[in-house]
Design brief:
- The structure holds 2 protein chains of 2 kinds.
- By secondary structure, chain A is an alpha/beta fold.
- Chain A is about 60% helix and about 5% strand.
- Chain A is built from 17 helices and 6 strands.
- The C terminus of chain B is likely disordered.
- Classes of the chains: A alpha/beta, B mainly alpha.
Chain lengths: ~475, ~100
């Protein structure tokens, strides 16, 4: 009987691992993406149900209760969360995975079952990584949710973090050496104190590493912790002899690492830069304001300009989502298409709070994805556009990124909105953007500013265009 | 069951697989994809269940309980938000209608 159950369990894990990879592959195209997550979900369901058949297990009742609690809370919160709050929700769920990996390591270490040294080493490493990911993801959630408003920075904090890291590794090394038979504990059989210290240190490290990092860099950090959680899950998979965990965790670990690099590159930051220094620390951001003045325009003139254009490129930013203007923007877009205007959306990789976040917000409003282009696809088209309409975007269209070496965003790939024949910027007021950097685009001769609330102004534009 | 070198081979091949699968994903899907990969490491749930099934002392059972709660949250939450996001991606060929 146990052999039969084992075969069934291993077969189901094999199927689950295959479905995860197949699902992730399907997610690589918008046409098949929806099916991808469903396939991966089937794999997860099969693996979870079959695990109940694992031989010689106890605690079925509390286990089922635990699954119900975690599952129901996550189901309700996941169904309710607004699309704009998606990044912090992903951070939270990711932190939970890291915490679970840490908990597995803790159980195995406290139980002190005789494992090989390699398994013990991987168990300890997975525990550390999982706990760091758990604590760090909670901080990332708190920052994006607005619960933690300050960035805590002090002199020498990188050294403090280094000391904590070294201490964590030393405690972990003692545990592993003890398991390897080296007498480091004066004959003690188990090291519960060391295990507690290991997890406390790892949690503190996750907090102190993440607290100084600014909100704008959080997507990169969340992505990094996603990769780390994957790695922790893979390591705990080695400890538990579980191939599904090894494969799924490793796939996520490597995919997440690549995704983190892509995001950091899109933001023109190195990963080291994100982790070890705060944004804007280069100083001297307000060296010299751009020459000229911002020139206002009113709604009726913008409507005429848009309505009689041949090609309009809309550049949405997170400000549009904050103003809840995306539905009105799509209405405006449809009114223009009805007049024969070619309309395209240009999305910067870091528009929104995470690469791809803006696409989700536009999709929610009903904008078809084939009207949406990324920076590489559309940058050469701005020269042929009659109007570039900027709604709630700022740094990603700031031409100083191409020209001003002293600017903190110098070298960041931007959307070439300044190359369009006319530029219209819908903006609440005259202040600087999220990063506090003056935007030279707003001062150009062919730029006009439409001041006001994004949603209200776009609604007025829809009416005005329809009356042309 | 999975001995040292076999485990290393699995690790290496899975690492390349993850890298290759993701490298073809367009930027527009990065957020759902991060969410989707976040869901996939929810497989930690089966590990947490096994750890809990073997747990003996109240301390071990308590920690494992927390682990299973967290892992179930990771798996279920990851699935729900990913599915919600991907459901919204539609092509203009599917004749979208504006909401009023």
């Amino acid at each position: 009987m146990p052999i039969g159950a084992q075969s069934l369990i291993q077969a189901s894990y094999f199927v689950a691992a295959g479905l995860f990879i197949f699902g992730l592959k399907r997610m690589s195209s918008p046409v098949t993406a929806r099916g991808g997550i469903v396939w991966a979900g089937v794999g997860m369901l099969v693996a979870t149900l079959i695990t109940f058949l694992w031989p010689e297990m106890h605690n079925y009742v509390p286990m089922t209760v635990a699954i119900a609690i975690g599952g129901i809370v996550a189901w309700i919160s996941g169904k309710r969360v607004a699309m704009t709050d998606m990044p912090q929700m992903i951070a939270l769920y990711n932190g939970m995975g890291g915490g679970a990996a840490g908990a597995i390591a803790a159980v195995e270490l406290f139980a002190g079952e005789a494992h090989g040294v390699a398994q013990l080493l991987l168990g300890v490493l997975g525990g550390i990584i999982g706990a760091v990911s758990f604590a760090g993801s909670l901080i990332a959630f708190g920052k994006l949710q607005g619960l933690i408003k300050r960035s805590f920075r002090f002199r020498g904090q990188n050294y403090v973090n280094l000391v904590i890291l070294v201490a964590t590794v030393l405690v972990g090394a003692v545990i592993v050496l003890h398991g390897a038979g080296v007498d480091v504990a004066h004959g003690a059989d188990r090291l519960p104190g060391h295990v507690v210290a290991l997890f406390v240190l790892a949690l503190v490290l996750g907090f102190t590493m993440t607290l100084p990092i600014g909100g704008a860099d959080m997507p990169v950090v969340i992505s990094l912790y996603n990769a780390l959680t994957g790695l922790a899950v893979a390591f705990e998979g080695f400890v538990l002899d579980n191939a599904a965990m090894i494969i799924a965790g490793t796939v996520v670990g490597s995919a997440g690492t690549l995704l983190t690099q892509l995001m950091a590159r899109a933001m023109n930051r190195s990963l080291a830069n994100v982790l070890f220094s705060g944004f804007g620390d280069t100083g001297g951001a307000a060296s010299s304001g751009p020459a000229g003045a911002m020139k206002p325009i009113d709604t009726a003139d913008v409507a005429v300009m848009l309505g009689f254009s041949q090609k309009v490129i809309i550049v949405p930013g997170y400000g549009m989502a904050v103003a809840q203007a995306q539905h009105k923007v799509w209405e405006l877009c449809q009114a223009l298409i009805a007049r024969g205007v070619t309309v395209k959306f240009a999305i910067h990789p870091v528009a929104g709070r995470m690469p791809g976040h803006m696409n989700v917000l536009l999709a929610e409003a009903g904008v078809p994805y084939d009207l949406i282009y990324d920076e590489g696809e559309i940058n050469s088209e701005f020269e042929t556009a009659d109007v570039a309409l900027i709604i709630g975007a700022n740094d990603v269209v700031n031409p100083v990124a191409r020209t001003d070496k002293s600017s903190p965003i110098y070298g960041m790939p931007i959307l070439n909105a300044d190359k369009a024949k006319n530029v219209i910027v819908i903006k609440r007021g005259q202040g600087a953007g999220f990063s506090g950097i003056e935007n030279a685009l707003f001062y150009l001769d062919h730029t006009r500013m439409l001041y006001g609330d994004g949603q209200a102004k776009v609604a007025e534009l829809v009416q005005a265009v329809k009356q042309l | 069951m999975i001995d040292g070198f076999i485990a290393l081979y699995i690790f290496m091949l899975a690492a390349f697989t993850g890298y290759e699968v993701i490298s073809r994903v367009p930027v527009i899907l990065h957020t759902p994809l991060m969410s989707g990969s976040n869901f996939v490491h929810g497989i930690v749930l089966v590990g947490a269940m096994v750890a809990m099934g073997r747990a003996q002392t109240p301390l071990e059972i308590g920690i494992a309980f927390v682990g299973v709660v967290l892992a179930a949250g990771n798996a279920v939450g990851g699935y729900v938000v990913t599915e919600r996001m991907l459901e919204m991606f539609k092509s203009s060929k599917a004749a979208p209608k504006a909401k009023h």
